[in-house]
Amino acid sequence: MRILKPRYWYPYLRMSRALVGYPIYAPPHLKCESDLTDDEAQENFDYFMRVKDERLEMFLEWMWRNFRIRLSFNPESIDKFDRWAKFYNGSIVADGQRMIWRSYNDYDPAWTGRFIGCNLMLDAGIYLGEYLICKRPTIRWGMDKGYFSKIDIDEIEEYDEDSVEYNIDQNVERYPSGNYNKVLLLFQNGRSDNPLPLQMYNANNQAPYLFLDGALDGLAGQGSYNSARACIAQALFFHDLAPDSTGFTPDFSTRPIE
Prior knowledge:
Helices cover about 40% and strands about 10% of the residues. It is of the alpha+beta class. The protein has one domain (about 15-145, about 180-240). β4 and β5 (about 195-200) form a beta hairpin. Residues about 150-175 and about 215-225 have low confidence and may be disordered. The protein has helices at about 10-20, 40-65, 75-90, 95-105, 115-135, 205-210, 230-240; strands at about 140-145, 145-150, 170-175, 185, 195-200. α2 (about 40-65) crosses α5. The strands form two sheets. It has a three-stranded antiparallel beta sheet.
């Protein structure tokens, strides 16, 4: 465990006490979903769908019981969440970034002991994801089936690998992406026949994206905090983007989140 600066002692001690007995997230297969078979990953996804509503309610009640913060699905609640998360950033799991990512993505080390905060980060991600679903009911939870692919090298002597996309009619090999089979949010806006992944709203990486910079390259709590409001604004922007839209990407810190 990293040694905290004195200014982080209070948030770390308070968070440590609040996390005692925090419910453990326990999917059937405690291994990175991208390393599982499709059937095993589907079992993990089914588990997530069964427990997400219960974990959301538990997280909301936990926030009120321990920090007297009442969260709901309105912008004011996101601002409250941001203030809370910024203050406790780096103390939810006080360890180095590499170890936290290893635990969070691979369930190794297990989400117990000093890594129990991984359960909290997942539940925070569920809350933010459900916020988006509340604002845009066309959004839904799904599984990431993104992958890299190329035409069989024996069939074509020269090709631009970066320009080749998977085609079921071609002889191809599939190369799963790093998030393959993980839980994420999907939406459909007419840009494709298939649902599109919502940028940065993968249940397995949304909360770490927000929190883990606090443990970057040094003492826990030393890094920055990525605003949940800005992340939600970005997700809504890409959801609402018309198929033929062009132009500059806006400043998400000032965009509405309704």
